[in-house]
Amino acid sequence: MDAFQLQGHDLDSLRRVELPEPRPGPGEVRIRVAAASVNYRDYALATGRYQPELPRPFVPLSDGVGRIDALGEGVEGYALGERVIGHYTTKWIDGPFQSANHASKLGGPLDGWLARQIVLPASAIARAPEFLDDAAASTLPVSGLTAWAALQRMALPAGASVLVQGTGSVSLMALQLAVARGLDVIATTGDAGKADWLRSMGARAVIDYKQRPDLSAAVRELTGGRGVDGIVDVVGGPQFLDLLNAAADNAHIAVIGFLHSMQVDGNLIGPIMARQLNIHGVSVGSLRDLQAFLAEVDARRIVPIVGARFSFEQGARAIASIAQQRLVGKPVVVFD
Asked: Known InterPro entries for this protein (predicted)?
C-alpha cells in the first residue's frame, strides 16, 4: 500500500513508503481514502515542536474521508461503498474526556490518513454529509469539531459577542458556526487583504492586529467598553494576557491552540478572578459530539473553507505548507 510515514522529528523525515495492505479485523472497516486534510498539529508533529515523545514511525494526518471497501467480522450498520469520515480520538465515544484517550488519536500515535487505505473501528466512524464534496468533508473531524466543541462549552446565547483569531481552519469554522447561530463576531487578522473577506463571511468587525497591537483596547472600542462574551484562542503565548483584558465579565475563553507558544508569563490570576472568567481547554470531542456537529453542519448547510489542494504525491509538501503563506482555508490532499 502506498503511504507516507513520519519517521523522525523534521520535515525531511516524511517518507513515501510501501506498506502491507491493511485488513480489517472483527468490528473494523477498511476505508479507501479519497481526501485528507492538514491540521497545524500535523505540522507541529512533523517538525518536532509538539509531542516529540510519540513513537515513530506513523502515518500522518488526523482528518480524512473515503469509502468503505472491506468490512470486518461482526460489523453492522455500515455497507460497502458508504462514504465516511473517521473520528480522530477513536476511543472517545461518549461522555467527558479521559487522558487515556490520547493514545487512540489518528495521525500519531496511531496511523493516520496519508495512505491509500486506513482501517478503523466501526465504532469510530461517521457518515459524511452528502452535500459536501470529499475535500470539504475531509476538514471536519478535528478542526471542525474543535470549533463546534468550543462554542458548545461557551454556550453563548444569540446576540452575544465572540472573538475569533485569524483565518486558520478552527477559526473559520468557529466564525461560520457563530454567524449561523446569531452571534456577534469580531475577527482578527494580520493581513489587511483578508479583512473584507472576513466581513463577507459574517464578521461584524475585523481588527488588524498589526495596525492595532493593543488588542484589548480595540475590542473594548467595538463593544462599548464591556469586552467580548466569548473568545476562541488558537494562538496561545503572551497574547493570552491581552485576551484576558478583552473579555467581558463572566466571559468564556476556549483555549485551543499554540500557534505562538504554550508559554505565558504575566498576571493571569488577577483578570480571571476580577471578572470571574471561565477558561476551557478544548480539543475535539467525543464521537457523539462529532455526530451532533455533523447534524448541525447538515442542517445549516455550512460548507467548510478549503484552501490549497495537493495531490497524494505532494503529501509531504501539503504538511510543509502550514508554515507558508497560503490560500485562506485548510490544505487538503485529494487522492485521485
From this structure: ADH-like_C, ADH-like_N, ER, GroES-like_sf, NAD(P)-bd_dom_sf, Zinc_ADH-like
Task: Looking at the structure, tell me whether residues 153 and 208 fall in a common domain.
Answer: yes
Could you report the per-residue pLDDT of 254-312, keeping only the tens digit for each?
A: 999 776 667 778 888 888 999 999 999 998 999 999 999 999 999 999 999 999 999 99
Residue whose C-alpha is closest to residue 218's, from 243, 201, 254: 243
Q: Could you tell me if 60 and 151 lie in one domain?
A: no
Residue 295 burial (CB count, 10 A):
12
CATH code assigned at 76: 3.90.180.10
pTM, to two decimals: 0.94
| Identity of the amino acid at 123 | S
Sign of the Cα pseudo-torsion (154, 155, 158, 160, in order): negative
- 209 with 101, same domain: the answer is no
Whose CA is closest to 118, among 205, 75, 58?
58
CATH of the domain at 189: 3.40.50.720
Q: How far apart are alpha carbons 213 and 307 in whole angstroms?
A: 27
Does 231 lie in the same domain as 211? Answer: yes
Asked whether residue 166 falls in the same domain as residue 262, the answer is yes
- Say whether 40 sits in a helix, a strand or coil: helix
The pLDDT, as a whole number, for residue 202 is 96
R_g (Cα) of the chain, nearest Å:
20
How many other C-beta atoms lie within 10 A of the C-beta of residue 236? Answer: 18
Task: Name the nearest CA neighbour of 220 among 200, 198, 247, 241.
Answer: 247
User: Grid coordinates representing 221?
Assistant: 472600542
Would you give the distance in Å from CA 36 to the centre of its chain? 13
Per the CB < 8 A criterion, the answer to whether 260 and 235 are in contact is yes
Query: pLDDT digit string (tens) for 93-137?
Result: 999 999 999 999 999 999 999 999 999 999 999 999 999 999 999
